[in-house]
């Protein structure tokens, strides 16, 4: 039973009134007895809480920073009118910070044997699965002097997907892909290109592409055109060890890597390539295999949504062994990891020969834009020291990147805003040169 402020106010007024008429002790006792009777009657007339029926509907997925709506249908099966305050509790990260009264609290009045639908609006601030905690109901009597309170568990899960901010770059990358694909006048030829068609020779065509047998049959110079190969295999590998947990700006490095992986996956699927995903530190944390182009992007976002970094050192040898099992034929492996000297030199470099022997490898790392800002500072003595430290950090990353390039690896070291488009450009460059 919950007493309200109205009960205290009635008690105080009654005590003040009878204090002038009856002896003090008798007046107080009378008021308290009358108030107790009113509270008990009010409580008895309050609709029961345990008999209430709840069902849920609404959104099951939403992108980070988006808006989701969950609907709670409340049925009052009793013979009394339900006058209640209801709190549909969710984790704090389901709402914007600083919200005094989240949009999951409701005041309702439901007559007997009727129902109402209550809508809660969520604005998640973290990726992953958000689970409804409980529904708390405070049912008041007609006088509002007392209330019954109880909780119901009404399960619901809202999966918050990565925001995919790099989607804005996709149209430009697809336009370049169409050029490489022979849909415009720009055609490429390389080690990994496929024959497309013949056309009459025009000045400026590569003479190495002349098809002499076709020319003999047609009695005109015939030139072969080429298009990049399709159905290449691409494996996106996210290293989820401790280095991926570091924050760059206001997001973890892992989130920036996810954004770049989504853009590359969407682009490669449109190019006709087969894309798989692997997240690994000491064991497989997420995996996507064998999806069609239409199903790939939803599968990637769904697999990446609950993924979090683990505060452990990644097992490079275990990762290499897992990659070998996932790539039975030549593939493009895109490894999202850090460029810290110690993990790369002690763990990654020893397994590189086995990875690059039959595969093309790209290492994509997230650079901290704050380092660039510090390197440009010269206005105070403190800024000069900070600039020196930033230059030292940049030099160490360059040395690590150069060691990787020495093994024939393409290295992309970009800030979160540039990592996704830079990685997409590197993929298109490899495709145009026939290295896939």
What does it look like?
The protein is α/β, with parallel strands linked by helices. The chain has twelve helices and 21 strands. It has helices at 5-18, 24-45, 170-180, 212-218, 253-270, 293-304, 316-326, 341-348, 352-356, 369-375, 381-406, 416-432, and strands at 2-3, 53-58, 61-63, 68-75, 82-89, 105-110, 115-122, 128-131, 134-140, 146-152, 157-161, 193-200, 222-228, 233-239, 247-248, 251-252, 274-280, 284-288, 332-336, 360-366, 410-414. The strands form six sheets. The chain has a six-stranded mixed beta sheet, sandwiched between helices. The protein has a five-stranded antiparallel beta sheet with strand order 1-10-9-5-6. The chain has a three-stranded antiparallel beta sheet with strand order 2-4-7, with no helix packed on it. Strand 9 (134-140) and strand 10 (146-152) form a beta hairpin. Helix 1 runs antiparallel to helix 2, helix 5 (253-270) packs antiparallel against helix 6 and helix 10 crosses helix 11 (381-406). The protein starts with a strand and ends with a helix. The relative contact order is 0.10. Mean pLDDT is 85; it is low at 15-22 and 183-192. InterPro entries: DUF58. Residues 200-378 form the DUF58 domain.
